[in-house]
Design a protein that fits this description.
By secondary structure, the protein is of the alpha+beta class. The protein has a single domain, classed as Butyryl-CoA Dehydrogenase, subunit A, domain 3 (Up-down Bundle).
Length: 215
């Protein structure tokens, strides 16, 4: 039973690291859809993307999706402090889960060479702390999910202008047009990584309790 829990701990820790790394590096944390302009904009932690399906009534041509890290820094101005905090915390979550897996491997190898057995929960706790960092980051992003980037057409391309609070509708010439904000798969994958860190800690604690009961 303890061996199965050890394997489960390792698998959960590895999955947590992979999911948090994918979430941190991908560019689909949120999407803003402007139905009046017929445009879509995406935000990741390191790149923002924008594309236009085209709308002749407002003079917007169809523009294929373009992604650029400088979209997050319109006119070379740093992103808001909350956004940089999310970046830093997600990087810490990846480092925490990565080091936690390494510590767990060391504990597992040591356990096989000692009759008393090693303690697995401290290394799993490091992984869980990485999950806590991700939880804080994801919560901060959730609170500020209405923040986005204003794009303006220049020639045949769109350029990021500044960070704004995206409203849920636009009133143009007396008509209301919906603007939808969606949290996308990169954000969801981050929460999946957080859940796996919790599973890692639970499995490690149970494994230690079983080993302790055998003494």
């Amino acid at each position: 039973m303890a061996t199965c829990l050890n394997i489960a701990t390792m698998v959960c820790g590895i999955f947590a690291f992979i999911l948090l790394s994918i979430s941190t590096g991908s560019r689909r944390w949120k999407e803003d859809i402007d139905f009046y302009k017929n445009t879509h904009s995406y935000i990741g932690l390191w790149q923002a993307c924008f594309w236009s399906a085209g709308r002749q009534e407002v003079g917007y041509p169809p523009v294929p999706m373009n992604c650029d890290k400088d979209y997050l820094r319109p006119h070379l101005v740093e992103p808001p402090s909350w956004f940089n905090s999310v970046r830093a915390l997600m990087l810490l979550s990846c480092m925490g889960t990565g080091f936690g897996i390494l510590f767990y491997l060391i504990a597992f190898i040591t356990d096989n060479s000692k009759k008393t057995g090693s303690k697995f929960w401290p290394s799993a706790a490091v992984i869980f702390l990485g999950g806590l960092c991700a939880t804080i980051a994801l919560s901060i992003f959730t609170v500020h999910k209405q923040y986005g980037i204003q794009y303006e057409l220049g020639g045949d391309a769109f350029y990021a202008q500044y960070w704004i609070v995206v409203k849920d509708k636009a009133i143009i010439e007396g008509g209301e047009y919906k603007i939808e904000t969606w949290l996308r798969w990169s954000y969801m994958v981050g929460w999946g990584g957080v859940f796996m860190t919790l599973c890692t800690l639970i499995c490690a604690v149970l494994s230690d309790l079983i080993n302790w009961g055998k003494r």
